Amino acid sequence: MDIPWGYIQRHFDWLGHVVEGFCIAAVVALLFMAVAPRKLALIIGLAFAAGHFHGREKRDFEVAAKLPPPHLEGYEIWKWSWDQATDFWPTALILAGVIFALLPKRSRSRKSNHSDD
To answer: Which residue spans traverse the membrane (predicted)?
Structure first.
């Protein structure tokens, strides 16, 4: 079986980053489970993984653009290349979506009780 690695790299590179993000999140979550409840540890792991990808793509942009220190222009993510943006945004959005899914649901009764504040 001949796997078309070039095609996969060109069109599905972002998916590999999503899988990598979940792997990073799992490792960090396992470490934090020693000191935090499981759901909080998972949220911490997912947030860490999203931050990791932002930092990595920011660094790649700084190197590609040959930015001098302190590299503040690296935060201008609208200047990133298409490859850098597609490595970061799908991963960040999916990881953030899972974080939101893990957050506690607020009940309507609690919301209505706080509306008088």
So the answer is: 14-33, 88-104
Instruction: Name the residue with higher pLDDT: 41 or 87.
Output: 41
Note the pTM of the prediction, 2 decimals: 0.72
Phi and psi (nearest 5°) for 86? Answer: -75, -15
Domain count, the chain: 1
Q: Answer whether residue 112 is part of any domain.
A: no
Short-list 26, 46, 29, CA closest to 37 = 29
Are 25 and 99 in contact by the 8 Å Cβ rule? The answer is no
Q: Domain containing 64: what range?
A: 38-102
Dihedral sign (CA 65, 86, 72, 43): negative
Rounded CA gap, 73 and 59, in Å?
11
Tell me the three state secondary structure of residue 6. helix
Predicted confidence (pLDDT) per residue in 52-68, tens digit: 888 888 888 888 888 88
Would the CA dihedral through 9, 12, 17, 19 be positive or negative? negative
CB atoms within 10 A of CB 67: 14
